[in-house]
């Protein structure tokens, strides 16, 4: 009830929730109370969560931030949310996001931008909470839920976490089931939590992850107790610092934060190792070929017939498809679908898509080549603090640069966490990222907790 009251007061300003499921929340909370009273409570009993509107929730509208899916009420539950409810969590509502998770500022949402509860000292400008999980990050930072689900295709958990002073982790590809998650780029998409603390992130992630035969890329591996890694000494761990992550035009404050992180881990007994990930500079162009290509294939299902928006006025079957898609999809989604269709088209497939897959392999091999020398890698989460709403909308390429530190782990399938680690000169939060080996979230949580 306390969270619902806060949401009612703050959401008209922040726009973090697209739907508040107050009655459902109270029903779930009462059922949770009853389970606790009878001594059968689960690990998340009664925890009030916000759910990114990308996860299908049975009987509750799921839009993925798009007019295309306005009014779509899924008849089934995503595996990730079903796991959370199994452990006793309570749903407060559905959270705003960039349309189909395409964006870094939450400005591509059909429901309007989300505001960051943080403001820079001496300025009243509204800031972005980042994207695409902007609603999740803003809601957690503003105490409009205890924690939230989010998804990360190229940084959409970690970048908003960094912009709002919260914790966000993307697990190893295949840890969390994609069943019931609205697809963006299937070989990159992973679910994860945004939370206040590293310990909460461990608790939530171990509930969200499970083997699922409804997702053909789900990994049949046990989910460890990651909370056991939180607070464990990092003494003796070898931490890699990749020299290629020093990017052109990186603000001095970001370099200073990174140096500070290195110093903290050194003090805690880690060995710092300079490493090279030589194909890093190709990661953004590779991502912005692979992700749109997969999106153009995935989003072909929105044809105005089986799902979502259907145009009222049309002259032929082809025109029905075209008009429904032109009306239902926003500008950024249309841009991605156009790029995707182009790089997959017969004349350009080898030159762009196949080439990108080869470079993707090189990027993954860069990581494979350093795991003999290091146990985890430390980088900044983002190349800047939260920027003003409206600032980067004019230029999509500048917007894409936001993902420079995060897309590599999606391309390689590795786990990565963003942990709040300091503030910039305007008092805005900044995040550090810890990247781990495949399936080694334990070390990621261990190092992340040491930076907290
Ligand atoms: N900002 C990136 C994009 O726009 C990543 C989005 C995401 O991780 N869902 O594609």
From TrEMBL:
* Organism domain of life: Bacteria
Q: Which GO terms describe its biological process?
A: translation
Domain Amidase: where?
1-444
Q: Where is the active site?
A: 52 (charge relay system), 132 (charge relay system), 156 (acyl-ester intermediate)
Keyword annotations for this protein? ATP-binding, Ligase, Nucleotide-binding, Protein biosynthesis, Transferase
Among the entry's GO cellular component annotations, what is one?
A: glutamyl-tRNA(Gln) amidotransferase complex
Q: Which GO terms describe its molecular function?
A: ATP binding; glutaminyl-tRNA synthase (glutamine-hydrolyzing) activity; transferase activity
The answer, when asked if Ligase is one of the entry's keywords, is yes
What does the record give as EC number?
6.3.5.7
Swiss-Prot/TrEMBL catalytic activity? L-glutamyl-tRNA(Gln) + L-glutamine + ATP + H2O = L-glutaminyl-tRNA(Gln) + L-glutamate + ADP + phosphate + H(+)
Outline what the protein does: Allows the formation of correctly charged Gln-tRNA(Gln) through the transamidation of misacylated Glu-tRNA(Gln) in organisms which lack glutaminyl-tRNA synthetase. The reaction takes place in the presence of glutamine and ATP through an activated gamma-phospho-Glu-tRNA(Gln).
PANTHER family for this protein = GLUTAMYL-TRNA(GLN) AMIDOTRANSFERASE SUBUNIT A (PTHR11895:SF151), TRANSAMIDASE (PTHR11895)
Q: How does it assemble?
A: Heterotrimer of A, B and C subunits.
To which protein family does this belong?
Answer: Belongs to the amidase family. GatA subfamily.
Q: What is this protein called?
A: Glutamyl-tRNA(Gln) amidotransferase subunit A
Species assigned in the record: Brevundimonas mediterranea
């Amino acid at each position: 009830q306390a969270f619902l009251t806060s949401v009612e007061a703050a959401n008209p300003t922040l726009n973090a929730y697209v739907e508040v499921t107050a009655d459902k929340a109270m029903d779930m909370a009462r059922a949770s109370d009853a389970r606790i009273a009878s001594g059968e409570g689960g690990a998340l009993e009664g925890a009030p969560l916000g759910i990114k509107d990308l996860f299908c929730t049975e009987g509750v509208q799921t839009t993925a931030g798009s007019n295309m899916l306005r009014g779509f009420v899924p008849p089934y539950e995503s595996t990730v949310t079903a796991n959370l409810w199994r452990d006793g969590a309570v749903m407060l509502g559905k959270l705003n996001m960039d349309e189909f998770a395409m964006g870094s500022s939450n400005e591509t949402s059909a429901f309007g931008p989300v505001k960051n509860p943080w403001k820079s000292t001496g300025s009243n400008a509204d800031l972005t909470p980042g994207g695409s999980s902007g609603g999740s990050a803003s809601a957690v930072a503003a105490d409009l839920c205890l924690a939230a689900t989010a998804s990360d295709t190229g940084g959409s958990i970690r970048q908003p976490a960094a912009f709002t002073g919260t914790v966000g982790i993307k697990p190893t590809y295949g840890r969390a089931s994609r069943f019931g998650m609205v697809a963006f780029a299937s070989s990159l998409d992973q679910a994860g939590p945004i939370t206040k603390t590293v310990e909460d992130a461990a608790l939530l992630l171990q509930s969200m992850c499970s083997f699922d035969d409804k997702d053909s890329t789900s990994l049949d591996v046990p989910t460890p107790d990651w909370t056991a890694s939180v607070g464990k000494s990092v003494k003796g761990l070898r931490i890699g610092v990749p020299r290629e992550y020093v990017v052109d035009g990186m603000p001095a404050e970001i370099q200073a934060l990174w140096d500070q992180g290195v110093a903290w881990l050194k003090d805690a007994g880690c060995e710092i190792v300079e490493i090279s990930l030589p194909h890093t500079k190709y990661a953004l162009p590779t991502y912005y070929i692979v992700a749109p290509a997969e999106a153009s294939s995935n989003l072909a299902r929105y044809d105005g017939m089986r799902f979502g928006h259907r145009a009222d006025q049309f002259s032929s079957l082809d025109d029905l498809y075209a008009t429904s898609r032109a009306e239902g999809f926003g500008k950024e989604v249309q841009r991605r679908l156009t790029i995707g269709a182009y790089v997959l088209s017969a004349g350009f497939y080898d030159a762009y898509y196949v080439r990108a897959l080869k470079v993707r392999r090189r990027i993954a091999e860069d990581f494979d080549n350093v795991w003999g020398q290091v146990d985890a890698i430390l980088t900044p989460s983002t190349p800047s603090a939260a920027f003003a709403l409206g600032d980067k909308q004019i230029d999509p390429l500048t917007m894409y640069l936001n993902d420079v530190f995060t897309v590599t782990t999606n391309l390689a399938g590795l786990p990565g966490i963003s942990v709040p680690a300091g503030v910039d000169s305007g008092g805005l939060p900044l995040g550090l990222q810890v990247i781990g080996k495949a399936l080694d979230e334990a070390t990621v949580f261990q190092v992340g907790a040491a930076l907290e």
